[in-house]
Each structure stands twice: as structure tokens, then as C-alpha cells.
Design a protein that fits this description.
It comes from Paracoccus mangrovi. It is a single chain. This protein is α+β, with helices and mostly antiparallel strands and 135 residues long. It contains two helices and six strands. The chain has helices spanning 11-16, 47-63, and strands at residues 19-24, 27-33, 70-81, 90-100, 104-112, 118-130. The protein has a six-stranded antiparallel β-sheet with strand order 1-2-4-5-6-3, with helices on one face. β1 and β2 (27-33) form a beta hairpin. The longest helix has 17 residues, at 47-63.
């Protein structure tokens, strides 16, 4: 199951417009345009879209830090929303590894706007699983 260099994005990530900029076991960078389809009632990028971006980046980083036969799943995610991202802007995400243990990986994703200001900080705990095909 584990591919240390993920080549494909999930259909959900594609639907959000997420583009991978760079990925290695120490850092993942992705971005996502803030489109009208991803707007909330206030006319800015929806928090759920930001969390989807962070989950994609953090999950990619976690996968890149797994061993053969391992998989991962998010068991906890905490988001601090600091500033809005206006429609027409871009959300830039940078995930870094905070901890790599035997059964968990903890990543932090900082999301910035085009002006470089931080819009959100997301900390995720990913649980490591042994991937088994169904019998």
C-alpha cells in the first residue's frame, strides 16, 4: 500500500484544485486556488476547503515517512483559522514533520495567502497501520 513518492492525488483533492509543488520526507508543499465553488457564505475560502488542503498535504507527508506495508489514517486534526483567504487568491500549504514514532506521525501544516500572511495552522496526528488485504 505504501508508496513513498505518491504520484496520484485522490479524486477529492483533484476536485479542490490542489496542485503539488514539491514533496519529500521532510516537507510537502501544495497550493489551491480560492475559487467561487469553494467559497463560504461570507465570500471567502471555506474552512472545510482549507482543512481538505491541509489533510492532503499532511497525509502526503505522513505517507512519505512510512515503512513498507504501512498505511496511515488521520486520528486527530486541529485547525487555528487566523485570516480569511479571499476568492481569487491562492492558499499555499507547507507541511513539516513534528514527530515520527512507531505508531504515529505528527505533522504541522501552515497555510498562507499570496501576500505571505498566515491564514491557518493545522496540526494532525496520523496513526500508522499495517496494511492487510482482505482475506
Amino acid at each position: 500500500m505504501n508508496d513513498t513518492h505518491p504520484k496520484e492525488q485522490s479524486p477529492f483533492s483533484v476536485s479542490l484544485g490542489i496542485v503539488q509543488v514539491s514533496a519529500d520526507p521532510g516537507e510537502v508543499r501544495v497550493h489551491m486556488p480560492a475559487t467561487q465553488a469553494l467559497a463560504n457564505r461570507n465570500g471567502v475560502l471555506h474552512g472545510g476547503a482549507l482543512m481538505g488542503l491541509a489533510d492532503h498535504a499532511g497525509g502526503t507527508l505522513a505517507i512519505m515517512n512510512l515503512g513498507p506495508g504501512e498505511a496511515t489514517t488521520t486520528i486527530e486534526s486541529k485547525t487555528n483559522f487566523l485570516r480569511p483567504i479571499r476568492i481569487g487568491d491562492t492558499a499555499h500549504a507547507r507541511s513539516t514533520l513534528l514527530h515520527k514514532g512507531r505508531s504515529t506521525v505528527i505533522v504541522q501544516t501552515t497555510i498562507t495567502r499570496d501576500d505571505g500572511k498566515t491564514a491557518a495552522i493545522v496540526t494532525q496526528t496520523q496513526m500508522t497501520l499495517q496494511w492487510r488485504d482482505p482475506a
